[in-house]
Design a protein that fits this description.
Layout (H helix, E strand, L loop, with lengths): L7 H7 L8 H18 L7 E2 L10 E2 L7 H15 L2 H19 L9 H16 L2 H15 L2 E2 L4 E2 L12 E3 L7 H10 L2 H18 L9 E4 L6 E5 L11 H18 L3 H15 L22 H14 L10 H19 L14 E4 L4 E5 L2 H15 L7
Helix pairs in contact: 1-10, 2-13, 3-4, 3-5, 3-13, 4-5, 4-6, 5-6, 7-8, 9-10, 9-11, 11-12, 11-13
Bound molecules: glycine.
Length: 395
Amino acid sequence: MKKNTDESIYTKTKYENSCHLTKKDIEIALEEALKKIDENLAVFTHQFPSESSINNRYVPIDNDRGWGQGFWTGILWLAYEATGDERYRQVAELQVKTFETRIEEKIGVNHHDMGFLYSLSCISAYRLTGNEAAKKAALQAADHLVSRYREKGQFIQAWGDIDDPKAYRLIIDCLMNIPLLYWAAEVTKEDHYYQKAYHHMRTTVKNIFREDFSAYHTFYFDPETGAPVKGVTHQGHSDDSAWARGQAWGMYGVLLSYVYTKEKDLIDLYKKVTHYFLNHLPEDHVSYWDLDFMSGDEPRDSSAAAIAVCSLLEIDKWLDETDPFKKIYQNAAKEILKSLIERYSTKEDPNSNGLLLHAVYAKPENLGVDECNIWGDYFYMEALVRLLKDWDLYW
Ligand code: GLY
């Protein structure tokens, strides 16, 4: 187990200087992103971009498997909010119908990623336009997610068949799926959604963070007793390392649980998890695919950086002016985003149909390595929109 260290002091030194990123820079970055979205709107109206690109180009897929389709619909809702242009809304609404069918007919949903799929496509539709069919689909997705809750251990099982004892584990990513349940509790006034989300969150934070607040990717429990067994990686460098995107899911996920529960210890936890992330960034502030690497030729994961930026922009809403880290987080968010805009965006790559280059899906499987991925694009857009308008969460 890694040693407990107070990393806050390094974070402070690293990000004490203000970053020069102007409103104009962000507006230009958004215009560039919208240009790419417009170029691809026709291809990705009835189909969706693949999870990761091949030679920096997404290929069209149907809404019938995997966990990534919601990101593209989420990008369209963000584009609609940023511009008011009805074209984005019309395409997003067509896509919402495919999410309705998918959950109604339980197509490709034998997993926990209901939040990634339904928060960004359907909760957003409901919040922005009052779409009742989208609300119903999101509630069906919430019901499906709670069906994966395991009483023994009190967590939501990530992958695999629900009666498979070898699949008895949670993964850190699921902290981004449970806001769907908090939302379902709010709209239905049915407390069981909240309780399952809450217990899953508490089981996760108790087991998934090491003493130094780096995160395991996945954590196993004993199916007979529910006792914690061990942390194991799936997409990271090793069982002892912090997979960069997992750490970023932890940052944003812990914070979203704070937003819904208002339990103060989660702010403290957010800071510790975030300090680990920030202290393991290389010179240009964009993480390698695993935080074990801070220099050298390993690939970057720009998507982890984009997720982290969104969490740093969200925490700003919850810290008062006297908090010693408020400015540090503002500076860190802007430094990372500036680097993404200048060195990782596709603005000078006419070949690519994505928004952010140099991301990794799953290095151990050699899947989507040094490619665009659709969640990186989504969080990049979310970050830009957050900085230009008063944005309300879809999560
Ligand atoms: N949630 C899966 C991933 O981040 O790759």
